[in-house]
Amino acid sequence: MENSKINELLGDITANENVGKQLLMLYGQINQEVIISTIKLTERKLILEKVPGNLITKTKIICTEMLQNILKHQTKHATHLPNFIIRLTDEGLSIVSTNVVTEADKNHISSQLDIFSRINKEDFRDFYMESFKGASITTSGNAGLGLLDIVYRSKQSVRYKMEQISSDLFSFHLDVTISHPIVLSAN
Amino acid sequence: MNKSKLNIERTQSSPSVVFNFEEHKLIITGICTPENPKLFFAPIIEAFDEYQKNHTILTIDIYLDYFNSGSSKCLLNLFFKASNNPDIKMNTIVNWIIDEDDSELKEAGEVFQEITGLNFNYPCKN
Question: Which residues in chain B are closer than 8 Å to A140, comparing Cβ atoms?
Answer without folding.
Answer: 36, 38
